[in-house]
Amino acid sequence: MTPTEIRTTYLEELVAIAPDLDADTVGDNDHIQTDLALDSMDVLNLVTALHDRLGVNIPEGDYPQIATVALAVDYLGRMIALKSKG
Amino acid sequence: MRTQPDGPASDAAPWAQARDMLDRPGGHLNIGYEAVDRHVIHGHGDQVALRWLGPDGGRRDVSYAELSQLSSRFANVLRAHGMQPGDRLYALMGRDPALYAGALGTLKAGLIFTPLFSAFGPEPIQTRMEIGECNVLLTTAAIYRRKIAPWRDKIPSLKLVLIADGEAPEGCVALGPALEAAAPEYEAAQTGEDTPALIHFTSGTTGRPKGAVHVHGAAIYHAFSGREALGLSPGTIYWCTADPGWVTGTSYGIIAPLVNRVTMIVDAAEFELDRWYGTVEREKVEVWYSAPTAIRMMMRAGAEAAKPYDFSSLRFLASVGEPLNPEAVIWSQQVFGRPFHDNWWQTETGGIMIGNTPGMTVKPGSMGKPLPGIEAGIVAQDDGPLRECGTGEIGELALRPGWPSMMREYLHEQARYDKCFRDGWYLSGDLATRDMDGYYWFVGRADDLIKSSGHLIGPFEVESALIEHPAVAEAGVIGIPDETAGEIVKAYVTLNPGFEPSDALERELRGHARKRLGAAVAPRAVVFRNTLPKTRSGKIMRRLLKARELGLPEGDTSTLESDET
């Protein structure tokens, strides 16, 4: 998957969980909780959705690494690469 | 201010002795004075009152002397802007030192402190500001612009908006420069034990939220219960993870710890596993008061994730907000070497009523036993007077009123207040049983209120927001079980002519509700129905929606007029 595809997937799942957001106005460095007002249940749901879409397990300790679009694209890209190697 | 139905309880009650923990100069009792100024006068000004952990790794220690001065400056700012004792200040901001100084300064100035959850959407905020006739708002520039500015003029009572961070938008006052210009001394208002100090809003099943009014005398019970139920004593390093936007974060996140002269950890960030474990280890937290949703999130991560951390500083762990499942108690014993102690209380009771207290044998899954001086009972409302239930029988959890942190009224809602009391009991609305050892066990709510992540959510408020959408004709909202949040909010809606169910509309409705209510209150799922089950009087039968959702018996359906399709 290209970074662009990962970005699109992430944004699709983000706005499915929080439809009050507009994918076009979410900034790359907006924090999903402090800037976009997701709560902890939303974050859990996002983790589950990303797992279903990308087949990537995101352990609790790694949640900060999906807290912005920019961080998530980088982190998920690495996890997907790791998975395909393993 | 009215007294409680039974009048003040006897001075012989165990909590009454906690008056001696306070100074009460001249017979007056002011929470702000007792929480901070008193400790400075007694020579403890250098002790850290509040250790603030910023969202990006920042850290700031605020001593009792500094907190006393900051809150005095805040009180002076309020008075300089013409605010009078009895006026109401609402706080709507994250966990920043300014919030704590603001709360204490408000109380010292004799104003009434009303915390709101900063993640609320504009509607719950506006409703609560209307009901309580807010005079002063303490908030941040971002929250003000996003959630308040568009409708500020709808609250004519609002005279002053203080902006805690940076520059003030038009019509607001920047708090920083105002504090700097104000004098650091303020003699606390000479409030009495029955002078109103706090308003905490709580949801109702029908109608608007209720503003439960608490008095300065509540600090007596906060001092007592902080010591008895949480094991707080001077110098304890204590972390209450609750936000002051909810009653726990004020009673046990500001007042009880400070009157007991502990050092409080205040974390500005939301739950993050390693951040939390790292905080307990680094700050050597001794007493930790948290909530089942957070504990279950830790459990999800597994014991392995906790392994790298040293938790040996922990002395006592407590949990509140919703029943803590037995697995979580056992898990915490394994991971932290100590179990989480569940306790029970409500916005109305102002303080912990029933608990697994220090030294007590924890029964996993039980809320514990009544605190000394608290008389609890399980009662049934048959015909005639209330009947006390026998061991193991399910009934409504009730308390004999009289302790000082009990609410004194629901603002402008005498009838709803009166409904809470019968035959000398305060009726909690929670169903419970008592076992042969005197331990209480939560069973469920007696009404339609939803408990999600420890927050009590009124279905009416959610339904009202949904109906504001042009597509929605009717809405019924219930809580459905969720292993992490306890319950999550689910909505059933019927549509107006011209609208068809679709995934896009489902999303639009959730988005609409989130914008108005905020993520914590808005439904996580919306389903479409042609009709909803209703009584002859046209009331939506939420109970029936819930029984069907859970596959439970439908119970008495004799009042059902038109069924769900």
TrEMBL record, chain A:
InterPro entries: ACP-like_sf, PP-bd_ACP. Residues 5-80 form the Carrier domain. This is Acyl carrier protein.
TrEMBL record, chain B:
One of its GO terms (molecular function) is ATP binding. InterPro entries: AMP-bd_C, AMP-bd_C_sf, AMP-binding_CS, AMP-dep_synth/lig_dom, ANL_N_sf. The keyword Transcription regulation does not apply. Its EC number is 6.2.1.1. Signal peptide: none annotated. Residues 41-411 form the AMP-dependent synthetase/ligase domain. One of its GO terms (biological process) is acetyl-CoA biosynthetic process. Pfam families: AMP-binding (PF00501), AMP-binding_C (PF13193). Keywords: Acetylation, ATP-binding, Ligase, Nucleotide-binding. The keyword Cell membrane does not apply. GO terms for cellular component: cytosol. Residues 461-539 form the AMP-binding enzyme C-terminal domain. This is acetate--CoA ligase. The gene is acsA.
